[in-house]
Amino acid sequence: MVNRSCVREKRPRGSRDSVVEIDFDRHDPQMTSEEAQYEASRCLGTVSCEACDVCRLLCPDLAITRDSLTGEINIDLDYCKGCGICAAVCPKGAITLVLEE
After folding, report:
1. Does 101 map to a domain?
2. What is the CATH number of the domain that holds 65?
3. What is the pLDDT of residues 35-63, one digit of tens each?
4. Long-range CB contacts (within 8 A, 24+) of 72-79
5. In the list 4, 31, 66, 74, which could disulfide-bond 35, CB 3.0-4.6 Å?
6. Structural domains of the chain, count
7. CB 64 within 8 A of CB 84
8. Which one has a higher pLDDT value, 64 or 93?
9. CA–CA dist 17, 98 (Å, integer)
10. HEC states along 29-77?
11. Are 94 and 53 in contact, with CB atoms under 8 Å apart?
12. Residue 6: inside a domain
């Protein structure tokens, strides 16, 4: 710690009197099959786009926009160069790259 006259002072740190114990036993109850399916459905990767704007903000070509009326995300394929940044950063996995024919 530095005091007002810019001289470094050493102060003793507090010591821990007790030992920290870590418990590795399982404390949550086992889930049923239905509960596991419900929990899995809440996962970000299993649902569709919710317009979080991550893809739109990171698109270098500004090819991804948001519709002002509906709020949905639109990708303008005429401006998109196919860099794949949007697909890489999408937390939902809602964007995939497909080769053009």
Report:
1. no
2. 3.30.70.20
3. 877 777 666 555 578 778 899 999 999 99
4. 73/49
5. 31
6. 1
7. no
8. 64
9. 61
10. CCCCHHHHHHHHHCCHHHCCCCCCCHHHHHCCCCCEEECCCCCCEEECC
11. no
12. no
Cβ-proximal residues to 60 (8 Å cutoff; 6+ apart), any chain? 83, 85
What domain range includes position 89? 50-93
Contacts for 66 with CB less than 8 Å, ≥ 6 apart: 51, 53, 56, 72, 73, 74
User: What are the CA-CA distances from residue 68 to residues 71, 73, 92 (Å)?
Assistant: 5, 10, 22
For the record, the structure tokens of 77 come out as 């394929």
Tokens of 45: 């990767």
Chain-wide mean pLDDT for the chain? 79
The Cα–Cα gap between 4 and 6 comes to: 5
- Residue that the structure tokens 């964007």 belong to: 95
Locate 15 and state its tokens: 């010591």
Phi and psi at 54, nearest 5°, equal -65, -45
In a domain, 78, yes or no: yes
